[in-house]
Amino acid sequence: MKHFCTTDDITELADWLHLGNRLRAEPDLLAHLGRGKTLCLLFFNNSLRTRLSTQKAAQLLGMEVMVMNFGSEGWSLEYTDGTVMDQGTAEHIREAAPVVAQYADLIGIRAFAGLKDREADYAEMVLQGFVQHAGIPVLNMESATAHPLQALADALTIEQFREKDRPKVVLSWAPHPRALPQAVPNSFAKMMQALPVDLTITHPEGYELAPEFTGGLSPEYNQEKALEGADFVYVKNWSSYSDYGAILSQDPAWMMTAKKLGEAQLMHCLPVRRNVVVADDALDGGRSLVLQQAANRTLSAQLALAHLIQSNS
Ligand code: CP
User: Fold this and answer.
1) Residue 148 CA to ligand 1 centre (angstroms)
2) Which atom of ligand 1 is nearest to the CA of 293?
3) Distance 43 CA to ligand 1 centre (A)
4) So what's the architecture of 149-293 in CATH?
5) Average of pLDDT values for 185-202?
6) Its pTM surpasses 0.95
7) pLDDT (tens digit, 9 = 90+) per residue, 100-121?
8) ipTM score
9) Do domains 3-147+296-311 and 149-293 have the same CATH topology?
10) Which CATH topology does 3-147+296-311 take?
11) φ/ψ of residue 278, rounded to 5
């Protein structure tokens, strides 16, 4: 059975990007592909873009959609086998996942990292629990370590707006008051290695991402140097991977501004904290692609769902 858990599940990126461009021009191109199928979206964490764009994508494919805020409305799930469930968890994944699968043909899961236990987060307990026990295709709508729907939308955006064959793309860390997971930068870094771009990653020391996502690319700790000649600047906060979940810096000098951006085009997955992560003048200055990225989330969800339907039929 095929699932869509990471960017590695994108079989032929060039074909997917080509189909994405066609869907942008003709949104109902695959209108009948999902007819008669039901998609169940389970949210263990908040969302705006993922929730609405995935529902819209499913509707464009002719699917029925059910959505549940599982984190606030569902039973607290147990994932470990053999547990004596006399504490906080009320239902085991061994029952919950196959029960959901009786009502749906595909399941979407959003479950963020807890940022307390790196080994547990990077084992993807929740997502893999559904993969293991649901028995139907699973769509990752941002898990502990990966956000492939966002990364695919980002690739579509770079393809849409690049002005040269091999643009320079800079992934720049920015400050944030809360500890955020590494899922978005992990998947973005991985995706950029599959595109004809020159990737530079810049962040303060201590924010190195896991090498399996960066491909061993050494970071540039000097943001100003990293930004020289950039065509696209992807701004994102993340917490430390080595000192897992820690906030090591809140240095406002790392915030993205219009001056730092120069002629480069600005990217951010959203939501973004204005004047903390990105300054107003960068978001409003005419070089921002953040709304186009959000628009491309519908395309990336259509592509992933179409792939799951076709490859599992
Ligand atoms: N970028 C993104 O995934 O947005 P949401 O968290 O609002 O879904």
Assistant:
1) 12
2) 1
3) 11
4) 3-Layer(aba) Sandwich (3.40)
5) 98
6) yes
7) 999 999 999 999 999 999 999 9
8) 0.99
9) yes
10) Rossmann fold (3.40.50)
11) -135, 135
